[in-house]
Amino acid sequence: MSERHPELDAEQTYLDLAYACMEDARERAAGVTGGYEPQRGGTEQHRHERESIVEVAVQRLTQLNLGDRALVFGRIDLQETGEPFYIGRLGVWNREQDTVVVDWRAPIAEPFYRATGREPMGIERRRHFATRGRTLLGIDDELFGDLASGIGEREVRGQGALVAAIEASRTGRLGDIVATIQGEQDEIIRAPMPGVLLVQGGPGTGKTVVALHRAAYLLYTHRFPLEGQGVLVVGPNRLFLAYIEQVLPSLGEAGVEIAVLGDLLRPRVRVDQLDDEATAVVKGDLRMVKVLAKAVNDRERPLLEDFNIGFGIQRLRLSVGDSREIIREARRRSRGHNSGRKIVEDLVFQKLAASARKPVEASAVRERLRGKMPLRELFERMWPVLTPGHLLHDLFGSKALLRSANRVGTNSVFTDDEILRLHRARSAHAQEVIWRFPDVPLLDEARALLGYRPGKRDEDAVRTYGHICIDEAQDLSPLELRMVGRRSLNGSMTVVGDIAQATGAWANDGWDNVLAQLPQKRDVQRRELSIGYRIPGPAMTLASRVLPHAASGLQPPMPVRDDGEVPTVLRLDRLADGLVEAVLAELDAVGTGNVAVIVPGSLVAEVKALFDAAAIPIGGANRHGLDQRVTLVPVRLVKGLEVDSAVVVEPARIIDEESQGVRSLYVALTRATKRVAVVHVDPLPAMLRS
């Protein structure tokens, strides 16, 4: 695109028209909202119509606020008529309602991403625009039909625009790829919505951003019913959410909910900190379902001795045998533990009334005795109303309760050592507990067993969604997957990840284990992303030495860019002798880009101290994302992120300290779009030695 294109000025004029129409639409939408005042008059229907008009206008204003993002990024020309369609971030019309820009998700835009030499999909030209702000810098044309130059099925579309996007400096936030979506990515984005779509993709293949674009595409294509049902994106941690949070708003979709699992709990609790991996493995095990069911069962208890209470001049009695019969009947009739409380109360009052010497109605007994402390204590003994937090707080705080819940019939579910890993000191009250991240699916499993508390249905209700996207799904435990599955309204899900990057306590070795815990109302659609767009060839070559040890049988992504900087390896006697200097050299090499210093967890404090001593600012990986040019990132938090340069510190320690150490090293080596450096004091792992 170095030579000036003869149609550059004409296309710039069209882009100016598109922006003018967008500004006109924004002014009209602002006029609707600015002149609106809540009105009480008129019928309910008229009030609803006025509010709907304002709501649509507000949504339109949100869509039209593009910032410095390009509105138009290309055009297609139809073969039969030669009619051009300009493809952009959102649809734009003039005042006569003629189409000026076609939304990238519209069916007519599909050939822009999918047309090949063999399947031109009815177009004779595909044109990519290179822009900066509103200025058109260059044009890249691909011709089809008689003028085609042999565009292959898997060749890169819009090479110039794609490479420019790849080589742009990272910002610490994930950007959209709407202008450079490739054919295999578009097939996934536009795949049918029903059922589970599973996407296996190696590092740099764009699986995360593809999943987010799919969410935007489905909302556009299935606005009804998805806008009412909701779309959910589940990420592994808050750093990851901060990293991806701008993608969907940049595509004009601000209504998608992005969350970590703890955000989905009802009722809400405080969640922080990780468990050690051995404990996390127990908490994520499918066998915990039996333990929790038994723990609930253990709280449904008959009396230890007969109960007597005064009623006027006589005494009413509930025997131990009566209480056993009530418990059995309540279990038979209730759908969840908490809903059984009313059944227990009704049966208790009936038994007490039946024990009176003189005939008395159960309703009269209830009216006079229901607030009495002895009777309240009886109900709490026989069938307490529980929140998930109360159940787990009591269970984890008592070794006796843990051992009892671990016995189902005559068998133990876990070993004694395993079940006692759950034991923790009790807090003064369940509401004061700060739960660990692996507790989240246990709390949700408990909620499913307990059901709604009387009068608390709205507070306890679980939100369901018409479509759910799960990223980094290869790391989710069986109970975490069950938790996500409960939020699915109809089984429509997009599941993305990479088995070679499975590094959590519940790292899965294959996708069948993951799919087994998800709704399967239809056959699973399986897709694989094979082309690596982010990682330059030399860096991928280095990472490919690790891949066979991380996940045998998987092929590395084929890099789009064969050229690039060869990774550097620096041996030091001490990290203090040159790590800071190595990072500064990387920072200088990437210009305005950013650098991630990726370290094993044991070195975070030491490396931070080196930079502090040198008075060099270094950011930390937190919920605000990678918001500084140099960021210190523990290896267990780096998955899913991308940076200009990655400095991987002590790869041997990464392997030794992480339970999936080789996979963690593979993740660390595949984060950079431009440069990779390895700094070590300990000897390099054999797989990295030249």
Break the fold down into its secondary structure elements and pairings:
Blueprint: H1 8-34, H2 44-63, E1 72-78, E2 84-88, E3 92-93, E4 99-103, H3 110-114, E5 123-132, E6 135-143, H4 159-167, H5 183-189, E7 196-201, H6 207-221, H7 223-229, E8 231-234, H8 238-244, H9 247-250, E9 257-259, E10 270-271, H10 277-284, H11 288-298, E11 307-311, E12 314-318, H12 320-333, H13 340-354, H14 362-369, H15 373-382, H16 388-396, H17 399-405, E13 407-408, E14 411-412, H18 416-419, E15 434-435, H19 440-450, H20 457-460, E16 467-470, H21 478-486, E17 493-497, H22 511-515, E18 525-529, E19 531-532, H23 537-550, E20 558-559, E21 568-571, H24 579-589, E22 595-599, H25 604-613, E23 619-620, E24 630-634, E25 643-649, H26 651-657, H27 661-669, E26 672-680
Parallel strand pairs: 2-4, 7-17, 7-18, 8-9, 8-16, 10-15, 16-17, 19-20, 21-26, 22-24, 22-25, 23-24, 25-26
Antiparallel strand pairs: 1-2, 1-5, 3-4, 5-6, 11-12, 13-14
